[in-house]
Fold:
Amino acid sequence: MTWPLPQRPKRQTAPKQTASAGAAPKLDLTQRLRRNRKADWTRRLVCENTLSTADLIWPVFLCEGENTRQPVASMPGVERLSIDLSVRAAVEAAELGIPALALFPFTDPGLRNEQASEALNPQNLVCRACRAIKSEVPNLGLITDVALDPYTSHGHDGILRGEKILNDETVFVLVKQALNQARAGADIIAPSDMMDGRVGAIRAGLDAENFEDVQILSYAAKYASAFYGPFRDAVGTNATLIGDKRSYQMDPANSNEALREVALDIVEGADIVMVKPGLPYLDILFRVKERFGVPTFAYQVSGEYAMIMAAAELGFIDGGNAMLESLICLKRAGADAILTYFAPRAARKLREKA
Ligand code: PBG
Structure:
């Protein structure tokens, strides 16, 4: 019990201000919470939450080419990787004990169009990467993103008519995109598009093709956030995006609506739900986990990563400590796992500490 206290503490008498600090009178305290914090061993004993490599999912950006790495300017330390190097990253993830990768493609601009047809190409970058990684590291989980933005000429997650994103027409395409990924070996299908009804439609589509073991990780409460900026550099949609995504992604001012989004996705068949971004949305994460108790992931998004890296590079904060603190805070708020660009670095740091 933390509150109300079992006994009302007696009011302290004011210490005489004439005495020096060394001669200060002892406070008559029954509870001194600092006792449990007096040394590392006891701090470890009373620790309520832990971060382990088993909590980390590593988002990896893909590009064409061989032995090719392309730095993402707004995300220091993050590079787009050609498929052969993504396989190397997968091997590294497995060695570090990271359970899964999440794949995001930089689609050649010449392949982007109004219908996002490249999303349905069985030989697209993501599908080829899935096959290559699966054949080399079969026990690593692979998460693929279902949304049309890396494939559309306008950078939106759906099919656009005039200025409108068409919901049902988009869902029709998303189901095909999900099946394309499942056939390539994706273990978890992760719709990040925020169309209504897509989880149910994707579940039905997968089941009809005997992919009943393929999981759905729904970006259930995904906000229209400025913190996605660096990601859009990485997948090349900042250059093309017309307008904003507020007609499908959530208003940062809302939280009850997030619970409705999550409830619907669970009913439609989501195995895991996600809240995104991470740190600015801890209250949402907490409410979702409290209310539904289903596996709940958080996405520490590109802008959150960029902020920590930029401040660390300027010497304003200790980057390594800020990284671990931000991740344990997400755990404390209720995340079962976290998508984070820090995944390999955090895993290495956790291994050092162990
Ligand atoms: C696109 C998608 C986005 C992210 C994941 N999938 C960006 C967006 O919605 O514009 C953001 C991830 C990040 O910022 O790290 N469907």
The chain has a mean pLDDT of 95.
